[in-house]
């Protein structure tokens, strides 16, 4: 911000002054808009942070219940069913779809989970024993995954918003502390240069006017002198001859020196 | 009369089994276990029974390690008994391993169907159900080969032969295959116990037919309850009911027609013993919900009953059924320990009392 050093390389003309003024105006509008955007995003960001906190706590509880229901399954079936379940699954029962949410111009992905009810690949697991526990465990884990999906969508939004807010804040700061001062400096510079030019021009004109006046005065004085001499000659020649002196014929006329 | 010569062949094994039974955890042991704050304490409490197996477990260990180590002990003891057994007892004990074999084979079939690395599968098999031909199952690359070359060589061949075609393995859900096998296994075991010349008319036959009958009924009820809301049709379901037990034939017929838990209740009410089960344990869906506290599910009631039967078995002398009873008690003990360990590990102390202790 050190005065003349920080300005744009422009020719100090009236046209560029116009451009700079437009630029300054644009920068100020942009600054206020970005500032408002940043505020809106921050508000949203705080809300998401709060919801992440909630979701994380909920996840802790749900995962605990889920892990415990798995223990119940182990108890009821008396063995490992993991492998069997793994092998009999053909298609996902729990699916998510992703959609976009627009928060002041930022696209946030939001995941939405849904369960395809008809998809019951390991419905027969634990048929002989523990089947109900298996089904219950599946339901509980379904809920756990739901919480995870919710958390995932919040976390993604959190990361993206964090980035965007940083960028926006950087832009706001850049406009506020770099672009606006620089443009202002440039305008100041152009103005001062233009004033300088004006003054120079004025001085030059004044000088020219002075010179002209001096020349005019001298010319006047010369003419007055000449007139005087002519008057003398007239009186002399008037006595010698009546006819006017032939100027063109008179070759020995004296040079006129100004 | 049967007691006269029993001890010539099987006295030693029976003695050992009774010794094993005495080393099972008692209620006071369990109440000590439930007081534990960490798995480390639990390990310490288990030292009298499982010290040998748990001695080398490094300190932060998952609950599954405890279960695995306890199973190791069970397998070790069982193998020792099996090595001592002769004649009918040997065959009886082979029958005991068949149920684990069914699980293993089902696992391998699933793996083969999905072309998994079979080495991996073998590690997951229950050691009790391990038999010589089991690794050979991995060699078969498709179902047709598996059925015609490998399965016929396994001890389970008779169960496959009568009930399943090779195409079934591909088409049917593996759970149905497993339950079909289990059904014929129960029937064959029952037949063996009641008709084998060495066993018929002995307390073994009497006890085992009661135990197996209960097991059959339990499976029938469970299958019915668990099949609600699945693609298992009623006629297919009927094929999975073992044709033994107290519910057969009227009860199973009613079960095969049941549409909801209420119909199941009606079906099993014809057997006096089972009548109270539904009242004790909340019916299926509602039973043992999360945070349901001490409420027992139907499964729990069944386990309780099974344990009582096993306990009663030890009041009889000169019978092979004690081996079966011991095996079941030991299994339940492993489940109990795992449950308590899980409760401790997950800090869910309020439900830690859900184990079943009989002694």
UniProtKB/TrEMBL annotation, chain A:
GO term, biological process aspect, one: vacuolar acidification
Region named Disordered: 220-245
MF (Gene Ontology): proton-transporting ATPase activity, rotational mechanism
Lineage: Eukaryota, Fungi, Dikarya, Ascomycota, Pezizomycotina
Keywords: Hydrogen ion transport, Ion transport, Membrane, Transport, Vacuole
UniProt family annotation: Belongs to the V-ATPase D subunit family.
One cellular component term from this protein's GO annotations in UniProt: vacuolar proton-transporting V-type ATPase complex
UniProt feature, compositional bias: Polar residues: 231-240
Name of this protein: V-type proton ATPase subunit D
Location in or out of the cell: Vacuole membrane
Biased composition (Basic and acidic residues): 220-230
Function in brief: Subunit of the V1 complex of vacuolar(H+)-ATPase (V-ATPase), a multisubunit enzyme composed of a peripheral complex (V1) that hydrolyzes ATP and a membrane integral complex (V0) that translocates protons. V-ATPase is responsible for acidifying and maintaining the pH of intracellular compartments.
Protein's membrane topology: Peripheral membrane protein
Keyword match Membrane: yes
TrEMBL record, chain B:
One Pfam short name: vATP-synt_AC39
Matches recorded under Gene3D superfamilies: ATP synthase (C/AC39) subunit, domain 3 (1.10.132.50), V-type ATP synthase subunit C domain (1.20.1690.10)
SUPFAM superfamilies listed in its UniProt record: V-type ATP synthase subunit C
Gene Ontology MF annotations: proton-transporting ATPase activity, rotational mechanism
Cellular component GO terms, alphabetical: proton-transporting V-type ATPase, V0 domain
Residues spanning the signal sequence: none
Transmembrane segments: none
Matching InterPro entries: ATPase_csu/dsu_sf (IPR036079), ATPase_V0-cplx_csu/dsu (IPR002843), ATPase_V0-cplx_dsu (IPR016727), V-type_ATPase_csu/dsu (IPR035067), V-type_ATPase_csu/dsu_dom_3 (IPR044911)
Family that this chain belongs to: Belongs to the V-ATPase V0D/AC39 subunit family.
Subunit structure: V-ATPase is a heteromultimeric enzyme made up of two complexes: the ATP-hydrolytic V1 complex and the proton translocation V0 complex. V-ATPase is a heteromultimeric enzyme composed of a peripheral catalytic V1 complex (components A to H) attached to an integral membrane V0 proton pore complex (components: a, c, c', c'', d, e, f and VOA1).
The name this protein goes by in its record: V-type proton ATPase subunit
Organism: Orbilia blumenaviensis
